Amino acid sequence: MVGAPLEGAALTERRYDAVVFDLFGTLVPEFTKEEFYGTVVEAARRLDADVERFREAWIASAVDRQTGRWPTIEDGVRGIVATLGLAEPDEHALAEALAPRTEMYARMFHPRPGALETLQELKARAYPIALVSMCAADTPAIWRASPMAPFVDVEVFSCETGLRKPDPAIYLAATQELGVPPDRCLYCGDGAYGELSGAEAVGMTAYLIRDPDLLPEDALRPDAEEWDGNAVDDLRELLDLLPAR
Predict the structure, then answer these.
(1) Do 123 and 23 share a structural domain?
(2) Per the count of CB atoms within 10 A, which of 34, 36, 43, 228 is most buried?
(3) Strand partners, 32
(4) What is the chain's alpha carbon radius of gyration, rounded to the nearest angstrom?
């Protein structure tokens, strides 16, 4: 068994009827702050924008990207450039500016160790599965082309729904589409955006998925919560809680 033993004997006796996963830092690796913001800095340089002002505007506009105010990531860059008083970049300039981000996603967007195996086993055990992700508009297409997507029944992306964690509505959107009450759902995430407390607030049982290879202070994990509840190092550990239905 990888990682620490699951805590709470009562949980091993409880029957869950569905599983809900976060995406970044859970099913796929989380970016480091250095790498993620490095792509933002490089975008500013390629657009001849002031690096610090562009970076500040990128951070300030996170909610706009996450809730679909800007339908594409390119629209978001146009919006930032406009706030800085610069001329609107053409399509070529936008592609060049976003190339480092595109490369980062292509390199990092792959199943974490155990993620694909866990999804496959849960599907074999007949568990409905949902994905609830805080993300910008370039994520859904990348996810849908991934080898994990066929095993997930319900997708709730913040950029498509306008809902954000830890708003109860984003979790309930998933459970309602699954047709499973929240208190019959197991939720697993890396703890960004207060997601674990948010999941438990609607009745789910939440588990933190840790990354032993990434220091917490290095991870891009906005609004990370202090969590002293259930935790695993490897998603496959969750299978002990989820016997065949």
Answers:
(1) yes
(2) 43
(3) 219
(4) 19
What's at 184, amino acid-wise?
R
Among 91, 89, 80, smallest CA distance to 41 is for 80
Verify that 126 and 139 share a domain, yes or no: yes
The reported pLDDT for the residue numbered 218 is 78
For the ranges 91-100, 139-148, 206-215, the lowest mean pLDDT is seen at: 206-215
Q: Single out the residue of 106, 93, 97 nearest to residue 43, CA to CA.
A: 97
Q: How confident is the model at residue 3 (pLDDT cuts 50, 70, 90)?
A: very low
pLDDT bucket at 231, cuts 50 / 70 / 90: very high
In residues, how long is the chain? 245
In a domain, 155, yes or no: yes
Domain end call among 108, 133, 148? 108
pLDDT-derived band at 1, boundaries 50, 70, 90: very low
Dihedral of alpha carbons 216, 58, 91, 143, sign: positive
Same domain, 159 and 237: yes
Tally of domains in the chain: 2
Q: In this structure, are 125 and 219 located in the same domain? A: yes
Q: How many helices (H) and strands (E) does the chain have?
A: 11, 6
